[in-house]
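Researcher: Here's a chain I'd like modeled. Treat it as a single chain, no partners, no ligands.
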Amino acid sequence: MALLVSAALARLDGVVWLGSVARELSFQLFLCALVLGAVAAWLRAWPALAVCSLLALWWGTPIMSMARSTRPTPSTGPTLRVLSAHLAAGNLAPSELLTDLVSHKVDVAVLSAVNNSALAPLSTASALRNYRMLRSTADEAPWLAFVRKELSSSSSARASKQHAGVQVRLGSCELTVRPLSLPSLFDYSERQTRAERLRALRSAPRQQRSVWLGHLGSLPSASDVAPLLDKQELRDGRLGYGRMPSWPGALAALGFPLEHVLVHGWLRITALSMHEPLAARAQRTLRATIELTEPSCRSQP
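Model: Modeled as a single isolated chain. Structure tokens:
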């Protein structure tokens, strides 16, 4: 009965908040339908088995599409290694961040929900001297970004209100990295703030090449996020890599995908993975490698 109610609520996605939450629970409901179907088969309860099978198919089809195979092609363009972590106000030591940045040769890191007490140590840490630290302005969603200085000259990695993000040079072209820091769709009290930030993101000028990286707070297919993907012509970076759950960190593969990388233009994801949180209470860390496939951008300036 609970599965049928959840399926009915999911049909109200975009109309009522509970409908959107039910849609976010699709993977967990898919697993429940499989387990109940197995029990029904063991009990020879054929009508119940038929219902569970249909519900499993309905919940599981969108999930399976994310794991479909994509044919690998040789990397011929310059690549950008990125990292994204939602810290949930957890304490992050500069040494922990540096270890992750250096060991994985990260070019751009985006942190959201950073504890204010951690800003000063991060901004003065000599270990992070090879990175330029950029912060969101007061009227934007809060985020903190670290950009490797070797990407380009001192003037090319910058926070730009005009481009609504961080401009970096890759190959002979510039691209925009747009940090994301949205409240979770599961937080009913923050739904108005979430709606306002999504509205601001939709109104941002579309760039020729852009990477949208950070805490989306829901699936990219959520009803309130879909207009953003349409307006900015963004592609879900998870395609071919699976669900990539990030929260809660302790649930690992059974969690919810709230941390994402979206791309626009001649960009493709060549590697995508989730890893252990950077700090206590933080969500799992997303790492991705992005290739710029645009022929005119392959040569160095």
